[in-house]
Every structure is written in C-alpha cells, then in structure tokens.
Design a protein that fits this description.
Elements lengths: L8 E4 L6 E3 L5 E3 H8 L12 H6 L11 E8 L8 E8 L2 H5 L12 E3 L2 H5 L9 E5 L9 H12 L4 E6 L20 H13 L5 E6 L1 H13 L5 E7 L5 H9 L2 H21 L1 H7 L4 H4 L5 H7 L1 H5 L4 H8 L12 E6 L12 H4 L5 E6 L17 H13 L9 E2 L2 E2 L24
Parallel strand pairs: 4-6, 7-8, 7-9, 9-10, 10-11, 11-12
Antiparallel strand pairs: 1-12, 2-3, 4-5, 5-8, 13-14
Helix pairs in contact: 1-16, 5-16, 8-9, 9-12
Length: 431
C-alpha cells in the first residue's frame, strides 16, 4: 500500500528467468539480480502523483556535474549519411579544468576533443563502457541522465559516452535528417566503433524515454549479435501510438505535455532550418507553426521517412514487439503513473514471454521523475546497482543465446512464426 511517497514495486518476467552464473561460480538468475538491484522506492510525498513528479523536472535542479568531450562521427550507412555527435565522459582534472574554455555553442561542461586527443583514442584496458541514449530533444547535459551515471563515473571504474540524436544538444546536421524512434543506425555504428577501438571493454547500454525506445529497437534488431552485454531502459514509452492517444485524450496531456514536447521539437527544427530547407522539400514555415508533438511528427516524420500518417510512424517505431527479440539481460524501469509513457503501453505480456527481460514498475515516479526528499532521483540507484552487478559480479561469458538449454527464436514459448522485427519501413541494417 502506498503511504507518504512509498511506491509499490512489481517485477514481470517469465516463470523461469534467465539462468546466470556469477564469477564465484554460484548460480543465479536475471530476476534475482534485478530484485537485489532495485531498492525500496521512497519518493517525496509532496510530489504525490505522476504530474507533480514530471512537472517538478522544470525546477531544473543542478544535479551532479558530469564533464564531456565531443567527437563527431561521419555516418557509414549509405542511405542514412551525414554526421552525428558522441559525448565522452571525462574525469581527469586537466580535462575538467577545460570547462573554462567551453565553447558557448556546446552544452554546459562540454568541449570538443582536440585533433591530438582524437588521434590517441583507443586502449586495451578492460574497464566496462556504458553507451547512453538520451530522451526527446535532450542530450548528455540532461539532469535525469547525470543523476543516473554520475555514481558510475565518480567511482573511477566506468567509462561512458552519450550518443547524441542528430541535431540535439547543439550538434550540427549535414543532411535533412534529424532522428526518430526507429533511428538505430547511429548507436549501432558507435557500438561497432567502440568494440574496435576498445576491444577488451565489456559494453553496456542505457536509454531514457525516446532513447530507451531506440535502444530497445536496436537490441531487438541485433538479437544475440549485439556486442552489448546487458542494458537498462528507463521510462520507455513502448507503444508510441497508445501514449500519444492518451496524451491527446486529456486537457493536461494535450495542452501541456503535447505542447511542451512539440515546442522542444519546433526549437530543434528552427536551429536547423537552413539544412532542412537545403536538403528536404519540407514546408518549414508550416513545420515551424506546429504547436503539438503529433502535429510536428505529421509535418516532419511523415514526409521525411515516408510514413502516410503519424499514427503509422508511431506503430512502426514502437519497441514493445522488439522486446520479444532481445537476447541480452535487460532491466526495464517504468512508473505506472507516468503521464507521458502511459501505463496502457507497458509490455507486461511481452516481458512475461522473454526470459532475457525484466520489467520493473513503480506505482509512483512520473516521467523521468522519481524525486526523493532532498532532491535526489531514485532511478539512479537501480540503474547503477544493476550495471555494477552485471559488470563486476557476473560471468558475462556464461550468458548466451539459449534459454534453459534450448535455442530460441521469435517467441520461445509459442513457436517462431511471429517475427517481432517485421517492419513496414524497410531498413538495410548491413549497409
């Protein structure tokens, strides 16, 4: 029972969770690891529902400082060409001092790598490396992101980088492409580059909101072929068409959340107006007059990616079906009272089918809120606990594409006729 901000926590997975061996030889399973990683959820009782928790984000508490250096990648995909940015977390005092040299065109605490530094990138160390995807129109500077990764960075045991969605966080675009929830090619290229550049580092994934949707779609597309050893997705909207309809069905959802999200995307398009006009046939005057997120998606995502309606885009880009094809340990965190990622979109049935996934829900928390008394953010605790456990206590080589000794494909319980990766927008992942 909820009382004074104490949220109820539930776990959903298969009756027989994924078998995992620890480094000390002891046997465990994914559900047991997740339960041990998720502490009690005691939130600020004054922020008593999902709206309060979500809107309190606007208070913009400073949060723990994390410093970055930015590298620009040229996309290697023949169709989805152009450039994108990746921000690498740094802790060396000399690097942190460079904040004083910060380029005002970059986010706070971020500088560009020098040419000499870029030439020296790469090592043979075996430190775990975390690949992070931020939320809609966000970046590595977001407070919710820094609360989750700061303890890992400050421990001195982890390396981390944030893949910046095209055009976000003051990154430049060199084509007419921004990004969408199906945009998995940049994270795929980054992971391949990391595996080549740091061959001994075990790689892990972390995604927030829209970034959680992208990461889940990537994991589903790659299956057991992904170099990632485990991942966490936080506040994934899962079924975008459901969440969109739920937002449009209420006054606050339509006129507050849809409008705020639409405004952020309109600002993004405004910054890249020249590129959009140069590389696309989009009517930018019409695009920049849109107020709500679904209107923006109709005016941009549809003509850019060939979707007939924004609803078709939402259905195609949703990640609930991708969850069925995930083949690495995945912890998914969602708040049931999240007003943006609606509880009606939560993939309980899919999580109950795939032993590689555990869906953890809290009855309180809002969208990327989980504010505790004193301003802390609860979600950082299970994220760090799970990743530390997987990186330092689990025999990662014992995890493979088998479930209880049997090879799996599609739906392991009810056959393989259903293809969870069937898409209407065909993308050649190998180009």
């Amino acid at each position: 029972m909820e009382w004074l901000g104490r949220a109820i926590i539930d776990f959903t997975t298969t009756p027989k969770s994924l078998n995992i061996k620890k480094k000390d030889g002891k046997a465990t399973d994914l559900l047991e690891i997740c339960k041990s990683a998720v502490p009690p959820c005691q939130l600020n009782p004054l922020l008593f529902n999902g709206h309060a928790q979500t809107m309190w984000t606007a208070a913009k508490a400073h949060g723990p400082p994390v410093h970055y250096k930015r590298k620009i990648f040229e996309a290697d995909h023949a169709e989805f060409n152009g450039s994108y940015a990746v921000d690498f977390a740094v802790t060396d005092p000399a690097d942190v001092e460079r904040e004083e040299e910060a380029d005002p065109s970059l986010p706070p605490r971020t500088v560009n790598f020098t040419e000499a530094e870029l030439a020296k990138m790469g090592s043979d160390d075996s430190r775990p490396m975390l690949v992070i995807l931020h939320g809609l129109s966000g970046g590595s500077h977001e407070v919710y992101l820094r609360f989750a990764i700061a303890p890992l960075i400050e421990s001195g045991k982890w390396e981390a980088c944030v893949v910046i969605s095209r055009g976000c966080a003051h990154s430049k675009i060199t084509t007419g492409l921004l990004y969408n929830a199906r945009a998995t090619w940049d994270v795929r290229q980054t992971i391949k580059w990391l595996k080549k550049t740091y061959p001994n580092r075990p790689l892990f994934g972390l995604g927030f909101s829209l970034g959680a949707c992208i990461l889940t779609n990537y994991l589903g597309e790659e299956g057991s072929a992904t170099p990632l050893k485990a991942a966490v997705v936080v506040a994934n909207p899962w079924a975008l068409h459901i969440s969109s309809k739920m937002l449009q069905s209420s006054f606050i959802g339509h006129h507050v959340y849809q409008r705020v999200l639409g405004t952020s995307m309109r600002a993004l398009a405004t910054r890249h107006k020249a590129e959009l006009e140069q590389h696309t046939n989009i009517d930018t005057a019409h695009l920049l007059s849109r107020k709500y997120l679904y209107e923006f998606d109709r005016a941009y995502q549809c003509p850019t990616w060939g979707y007939p309606t924004e609803e078709a885009y939402y259905r195609d880009a949703s990640s609930s079906d991708s969850l069925l094809a995930v083949r690495v340990p995945l912890l998914a965190l969602n708040a049931v009272d999240d007003p943006i990622a609606s509880w009606l979109s939560l993939p309980y049935a899919e999580a109950a089918t795939n032993p590689y996934t555990v869906l953890c829900t809290t009855s309180l928390g809002g969208h990327l809120g989980w504010f505790e008394i004193g301003g802390g953010r609860w979600h950082g605790k299970p994220v760090c606990n799970f990743l530390n456990h997987m990186a330092f206590e689990v025999d990662l080589d014992s995890i493979h594409n088998e479930v209880n000794g049997k090879r799996t494909s599609g739906n392991p319980e009810n056959g393989t006729n259903f293809d969870p990766l069937r898409r209407k927008m065909h993308v050649n992942l190998n180009q």
